[in-house]
Amino acid sequence: MQISGFIEILSTNLNCLSLAKVSLASFLTSLPFNPVKLVFFVAWVYFCLYLIQRTQFSPLVPIKYKAVAYIITLFTGPILLFILLIVDTAKKSFQSNYSIIDTIKQQVQDVIANIRSRSQRISEDDTMIRLLDSSGKSIDEIYGHSDKKRLDSRILDLTEQIIVDALERRASDILIDPTDESTYTIRLRIDGVLRIVKELQTETSKAVVNSIKAVSSMDISEKRRPQDGAFIAKKGQKTASFRVASAGVFNGEKLSIRILNQDASTFTIADVGLTKKQYSIIQDAISKPSGMILICGPTGSGKTTTLYAMLNEIDRYTRNVITVEDPIEAVLPTASQIEINPKAEITFAKTLRSVLRQDPDVICVGEIRDEETAEIALRASQTGHLVLATIHCDSNATALVRLLDLGISHLLLSSGLSLLSSQRLLRCLCKHCKKPAQLSQDLIQKLQRKGINYKNIFEAKGCKNCEGTGYFGRTAICDLMVITEKLKSDIANNEASIADLRTEDDKSKKSKLRKEGLKKVTSGITSLEELKRVIG
Question: What would the mean pLDDT of 517-521 be, rounded to a whole number?
Answer without folding.
Answer: 92
